[in-house]
Design a protein that fits this description.
Two copies of one chain form a homodimer. With 351 residues, chain A is an alpha+beta fold. Chain A has nine helices and 19 strands. In chain A, β4 and β5 form a beta hairpin. Chain A is elongated. At the A-B interface, α5, β13, β14 and β15 of A face α5, β13, β14 and β15 of B. β13 of chain A pairs antiparallel with β13 of chain B.
């Protein structure tokens, strides 16, 4: 049994901001290349190592190699059983657990695919996982997947979808001394923003996990000049929707929600959308993972690559050490207890 | 009696966008310089011509020489008794009337000061009238003043004040998947905009003229990133206030109006303010002007240099040919009937 806190510190010491994963991918590749029960392949800055034991099922265990850019406050520091540092929680602790298990489990009960991929923390189009899906999809084949994102060492099932819509309200310009000859588009925003702010909320409970939807205005703009009644104003809304809605259903829901605040002359625009993934906890491997943790699962509120696997027909869950609320924060850290707990549960699953 | 439509056309033919009034000031100066009953002075691109007849009262008749920049649709055109063109209404028609009366009235009943000034259509700081107030205030001394701005050849009394305030609301950033850990500043705008939109309005009736106040949001902004609960949002409001309020009183009124939509952590900022001017129709010269028009006066809703004169203790009114609603519009025009009516009323006043 290796010292997971020490090996996490070793990974944190290697800078790996998105698009600069070469060095850490080299380390991972070297560690796995000579393991006799693994077939290891490098695709760009992604590393995939697989067993071929002819088991009835194959489990994919995946984690991203990159971090967000350094925060000036994030000085790596090891104190007792806690490691502070950029990526400690998101997600080099998870990578350390994966490396440990991959190199220490010659006879897993299921075939294992250990996937270390690049460029998760930036725009979707650049994702190393998408690079693998498009160039080498057979490397990601499996019956279920576990993403090592920070989850406080308990199962965070599925993930919510996210979309942005923009409502642009029209008006008619006029001099502010004679506003009755025009129509103020900014004034019309009031009712729209009230509807967002007073939205009653909605929670979908799937496989016992509560997916709490969120609706937030993330941008507002309008105005022409100091003495002009403005003829245009807009608000952009981010909707975090439960995985029992498709993007089309979520959009239809918002169009209905905002009825009366915009009319035919205005614009309701879908800016972008990414569906979530249902918890899929009925799958035997994911049910076994929950059992191995001994803790009730909960819903994943942020969007993760669990949705990418689901899009390709692979049920998946999030499970890793570290507090998800501290990801990208200057006080990001991970503890030895969570690292060990994560390893123990995964070891029990694949033993 | 000269042909006022022809002389207005002559003035419209001389381009005089703000800061380029040299040529038109030259023409005005040449016309007035040799009139024996006038003392004519040029100060920069301003021209002031005065009688010195020892009358009991002095009337200032003032008009600006500049226009806004040309609108691509504004082709000068003379059709029957109507002249279309940039500045036809605002306010070369008024200038033509002034030039005609100044050069045709050797024995006015009051001493007259004919003031043609530059740079009215741009920022206050550049105003030719302010240049005169600060460098040669004696040139503007008088008992009352008439501004030749377009008013449909009836008296538009006084003018409203105008101010802009900006309310900046604070919030707390959070991930939009977990908005309950933050506070959305854009959502807080809703109540504020509703209060602007639902403002009941207020009208001050002064000297029988209705000064209808106006409150209009002219800018709104807020937003951090696509998935961030925004911690700041702001709205800028333009208040057109009646001349019975000072700027300080108007600001206090708005602070009170918006109570409950902002709190101590937010910012309420006065961006700028320009007081209006009361109608002063009790002044004998302005009362006589109203009588000479034979039409009921009305309040001036836009801000004009009537307020500059009032600030220096000189009661003033707006009176000129042309539709004020067409000023700065591509279909700006003036009619022979309004030009003649304006001249007749002023001639009766100073005869």
């Amino acid at each position: 049994m290796s010292d997971l806190l020490a090996s996490t510190a070793e990974l944190v010491a290697i800078p790996s901001v998105s698009h600069n994963e070469g060095a850490i991918a080299d380390l991972v590749e070297v560690r796995l290349r000579d393991v006799e029960w693994l077939e290891t392949e490098r695709v760009g800055d992604n590393v995939v190592a697989r067993t071929h034991l002819g088991r009835a099922q194959r489990l994919v265990l995946a984690g991203h190699l990159d971090t967000v850019p350094p925060n000036q406050l994030s000085t790596p520091k090891l104190e007792g059983d806690t490691l502070w540092g950029l990526g400690a929680s998101d997600m080099k602790g998870g990578l350390a657990v994966m490396l440990d298990l991959a190199t220490a489990t010659p006879e897993p009960s299921v075939d294992c695919t250990w996937c270390f991929y690049a460029r998760e923390e930036i725009g979707r189009a650049d994702s190393g996982l998408l690079e693998l899906w498009s160039s080498r999809p057979e490397l990601l084949a499996g019956d279920a997947a576990i993403l090592g994102e920070p989850t406080d060492a308990l199962v965070e099932a599925g993930c919510q979808g996210t979309m942005r819509i923009k409502i642009s309200l029209r008006g008619m310009r006029a001099h502010t001394a004679r506003p009755f000859t025009g129509r103020n588009a900014i004034h019309r925003l009031g009712a729209l923003l009230d509807r967002v702010a007073r939205w009653g909320g909605h929670t979908a409970t799937l496989d016992g996990c509560d997916f709490v939807e969120q609706l937030q205005a993330v941008a507002v703009e309008g105005g022409v000049a100091a003495n002009v009644v403005p003829d245009a104003a807009s608000v952009t809304v981010n909707f975090r929707y439960a995985p029992d809605r498709s993007a089309a259903e979520a959009e239809a829901y918002l169009r209905e929600l905002f009825v009366g605040t915009y009319d035919d002359d205005d614009a309701f625009e879908l800016l972008d959308a990414a569906d979530g993934a249902p918890p899929s906890l009925g799958h035997p491997l994911l049910a076994a993972l929950v059992a191995a943790t001994g803790v009730a699962p909960r819903a994943k509120v942020g969007w993760t690559d669990v949705a990418s696997f689901w899009e390709h027909g692979v049920p998946a869950a999030n499970f890793g050490p570290g507090d998800p609320l501290l990801a990208h924060h200057h006080d990001e850290h991970v503890t030895r207890a969570q690292l060990d707990r994560t390893r123990d549960a995964l070891a029990a699953l694949i033993a």
